[in-house]
Design goal:
By secondary structure, this protein is of the alpha+beta class. The chain is globular and about 40 Å long. It binds zinc ion (ZN). The site of zinc ion has 7 residues, from α1.
Length: about 80
C-alpha cells in the first residue's frame, strides 16, 4: 500500500490535506481529502465504498482510515524524537 500525504501551502476552500492511497500499482490511486472550515470537519474519498458508507452510516472507508493511521504514526514519531532530545 502506498500512501502519499500532501499538505497544501495555502488553505483553499478549507482543504487541509490531500492524500493518495494506492493498493495496486496498476490501478489509479484513490484521492482522500481532509476539509476543515469554521463549522465543519470532513474527510472524503473518491472510492465507491466511501460513497456507499457515507450515504448509509457516515463511516469512513479503509483509505481514510489508512491515511489517518499514517498521520498518527508520524505524530508518534515526532513525539519520540522530542523525548530523545
Ligand atoms: Zn476510500
Amino acid at each position: 500500500m502506498r500512501i502519499k500525504i500532501t499538505k497544501p501551502k495555502s488553505v483553499e476552500n478549507g482543504v487541509r490535506l490531500y492524500a493518495t492511497v494506492q493498493r495496486n500499482p496498476h490501478v489509479a490511486p484513490h484521492q482522500v481529502v481532509y476539509l476543515r472550515t469554521a463549522n465543519k470537519k470532513r474527510w472524503t474519498c473518491d472510492c465507491p465504498d466511501f460513497t456507499f458508507r457515507e450515504n448509509g452510516k457516515g463511516r469512513h472507508c479503509d483509505h481514510i482510515k489508512q491515511v489517518r493511521a499514517k498521520i498518527e504514526r508520524q505524530k508518534e514519531a515526532t513525539r519520540l524524537c522530542w523525548t530523545v532530545e
